[in-house]
Each structure stands twice: as structure tokens, then as C-alpha cells.
Amino acid sequence: MMDLFTQAFLTALLVGVVTSGLPLLLAGLGEQISEKAGVLNIGIEGMMLMGAYLGFYVAWRSDSLALGFVGGAAGGLLVAALMMIFCVWLGLNQIVIGIALTLGAEGATALLHYIQFSRTYPRLGSIESLAIPGLSTIPVIGRALFNQPAIVYLSIAAIALLALVYRHSNLGLYLQAAGDKPAALDSAGVDVIRTRSVAVLITGVMAGLGGAYMANVGAGLFIPFMTNGSGFIGIVLAMLARGRPLWVLGGATLFGGCLSLATALQVAGVDIPTDVIQMLPFTAVMLVLLLFGRHARLPNALGVAYLRGER
If you placed Cys at 280, which of 15, 225, 258, 288 could pair as Cys (CB 3.0 to 4.6 Å)? Predict the structure, then answer.
């Protein structure tokens, strides 16, 4: 039998994995949709950051976590709409536009935060969680996995939904074709531009939700530049998952665990510099890329603009 300290430590570790990993999961799933359709969404970091700011601001003003997530989704959708116009409709360079949108979102959210709050950092109140009867009382894992806000359960459900869409729906076929053989999809009478547009907008919604979770649940406040590269980790997760949503979950758990373990060790009294904690997920990214990067399968037309009617 584990003593109370060990149980509390393991529970805190698992809670940290969920808290750190869920934004990566949402970002990775969203990026996976975009990449399947042939759009390399480098701007996902900016979508997360805008979602974090608007998600926090709406939740703070309305005193409603649910409305905060609606605001976060709207923030990500706003940046995604710009990505759609410039890259999908106008055919501009996806990498250049994505970087520009990320930098623009960083500057805009920092400025908006300063105008609204100056140098203060207001916090949200307590976050309501949804306990699953029976499962939430299991030692160690019960509170960590089965007593979470509803967005956590919806995110897990999204994995199964996307797997079904990819394998057993026309939309999944259209997304795959838009990324691999857009000219063939065009010849079949399916609008490639519309397919890619929908994919980019869905990506923005999911990235915005990830940012809102980070601000409203993970931190309880908004701090400028708080995403700290999470969007770029989401891009890596999507590339390595090879079109499999469950693999995105595995990668998000791995990188979330790196952050959670370092924080848990600090709480336990192990002296770990903050810089080391911030470096851990990126170190894990490099190791994973070294081990599995060469096996990643990317769509043939990823990052290539498509003009309607091209063959």
C-alpha cells in the first residue's frame, strides 16, 4: 500500500500531465486536420495565444468558464480566418504568413492586455470540474483523470470522432485528397479551396480552445506570450502522428509529462532551475524527432498553394 504522501505526489503528477498536455493535444489535433488538407499552419501558436487572451477576458468579464471557451474558440477562429484568406484564397507562402500571424498575435495580445489591465494580472475564481461517479474515487488516478472540467472529456471524445471521420467519411477522404492529390479532388468536382478553408477554420477553433484552457484552467490568468512554443510542439505532434489522432494523444502525454515531472519534483523539494523546466519539452521534441522524424509521413502537397482548375 502506498502512503498518503506518495499517493498525493502521484495524483499531483497526473493532474499536471493533464493540465500541461491538453493544450498540446488540442493544438496537435487541429494542426493534423490542417496538414491533412495540405496547409502547413505555422500560425497555430498565434491562434493559441489569441484564444488564451480572449478566452480569459470573456471568462473574467462574464464569470463563466463556458463563455470563456467560446471566446477562446472565437480568438483562434479570428487568426485562422486571416490564415485562410492569405494562404488558401490568395495562395501566399504558408510559412511566411504563419510566422507573421504568430508575431502579430503576440504583439496584439500583449498590447490588449496592457491596455486592459496595465501591469496587473487578475485571476479567475475556482474552476468547476465534472466528477464521473465511481471512477473519480479511484485512488491516485480518480481525481487526476475523472474529476476534470468538461473540456477535458470533450477533447478525448474528439480523438475518437476524428478517427472515425478520417477512416469512414467522405470528409476524411476529401481532406486526404486535398493534401495528397488536390488536382484529382478538383477533377472529381470537390472544391479544394473550400475543403482547405474548412480545415484551417477548424484548426483555429481547436487551437483557440487549447489556448483558453491554458489560461483559464491551467494558469487561471493571462500572461503575455504564455503559450511559450506550445503551438510549435503541436505542429511536431501532428507531423509525427502520421494522421492518427491517438498518436497525438500519446505525444501530448509525453511532453505534458516532462513539464509535470519537473514541477512535481520541485514541489517535492528537489532543486531544479526554472530554465531546466522550460527546456524539458523542447529537449523531448528533439529526441523524438531524432528517433521517429524520418518515419513521419507528410501529405504530398503540404505547404503548396492550389489554384482552382490547376492540373
Answer: 258
